[in-house]
């Protein structure tokens, strides 16, 4: 930005300059007394949330250009620790954040980074690694030294990507968050202070901030003295900012999460917000003279089974598990396919007066699949064959081990136990089941158990072999049950008697990350669509582009194309197809796998449209 831009857009409603984000090294961004400032001039942040880990990397540039076209000058992203460190000391795609920030820089956007360590984001375990919460339990997100030692080690690896791209070094990063909505969870001010000091010690010179709901207990629990406080809400901006001002009389006003849509749970209806209502709420924020971050500007997809879950029932979020769907479309202004919606065009009209130059046109849409295709399945590999070949070594335990005990973050665990006999038929109950188990008795299907219905409808006589195929439907990402273990966390009861000598095998989704061993597995049967097991087949594609994979007649499981895990499908809806990014497909023959867990018994066709 040059001096000629200094007064553009000032005046009406506290309007501040929101021109192209930066001109490089030398610009000074800071939190002023009443505004954000760039080289001493007021500036308004018009930001949008876009999670790099929910968008195929080949499409980052297009999505960022869509943000610019909507009238935004900044992009915000979380960082999921569990994605990048799936096991202690084992890093996965550890430079992805830096590459995304470089892409934002190239598009001329500022960047806000929210590194956690906890992020919520409707992401498995709120972004905390399962092995971490298994070790520290309720001491996560506190001053506990064991927990903080893990955080410090992680930040030492992560933060150099942020530090080297800070605004005072010519990069896009202007702000970094301390924790995330901590006031909704805890009140350990020692912990928040330690995190603040840790960020500074690792070289973060960008402005720090916190974000919380506009309620007294949240603002007092989540705020840090001397650090900018922002608020999160979806409507009634004046009330929200008034609550913030009661706690922070000075400092820029910012809604760090303007919830312009919402997320969905399996088995419920899709949540939709009226576009005009959302646009009016955005207008109210700007009329308050505030900055804003649209959550979400573009939601994307929780690929590879990383969708989280919530607990319903009461204000404590301690009730029935509500797993999140794979799509994170969020009813956002830019939909899951990257297309502008009515909300996009209305937001663009609201935001345009706050720009110093005419907004760029939206970029051309990315190619879409032009001709539908139907999968041709060649064979099926049984679940037992998969577990024995790709799973963890089978071990025997006095009581059932959890997913955490077996080192499984996402996927399945097979529990096997032999009931003694002879004995009369008794009820079979699984205590502490998380989250869902398909039960076989002597190899025959016997029912499906859940947390709320943990007893088989028909009694079981002994002797008998009981097999439980148990799946994690997503770890809780918000509330006091964050970090709860998965699998069978209590025991298996026959009548009121525990059954011991439980054999367990973990089948993590990561077992499918390397395609060659999966291809080499011998088939148990020919094609039998809808039955449990891994169905292997092909799709013939012409002119590949963005598409949807439809799975009518299937029950519940996961799907892959060319080794790329699209995520979980489930016949109960509301999501009835899986988004397929165009770069995943190729001209000609494409490999498709469907891991069916429940067995629907339907037609089991798979269509690409």
Automatic annotation (TrEMBL):
GO terms for biological process: carbohydrate metabolic process. GO terms for molecular function: beta-galactosidase activity. Residues 535-590 form the Beta-galactosidase galactose-binding domain. The active site is at residues 181, 257. It comes from the Bacteria. Residues 36-351 form the Glycoside hydrolase 35 catalytic domain. Residues 400-501 form the Beta-galactosidase 1-like first all-beta domain. Keywords: Glycosidase, Hydrolase. InterPro entries: B-gal_1-like, BetaGal1-like_ABD1, BetaGal_gal-bd, Galactose-bd-like_sf, GH, Gly_Hdrlase_35_cat, Glyco_hydro_35_CS, Glycoside_Hdrlase_35. Its EC number is 3.2.1.23. It catalyses: Hydrolysis of terminal non-reducing beta-D-galactose residues in beta-D-galactosides. Residues 7-18 have a biased composition (Basic and acidic residues). The keyword rRNA-binding does not apply. Residues 1-21 are annotated as: Disordered. Signal peptide: none annotated. Belongs to the glycosyl hydrolase 35 family. This is Beta-galactosidase.
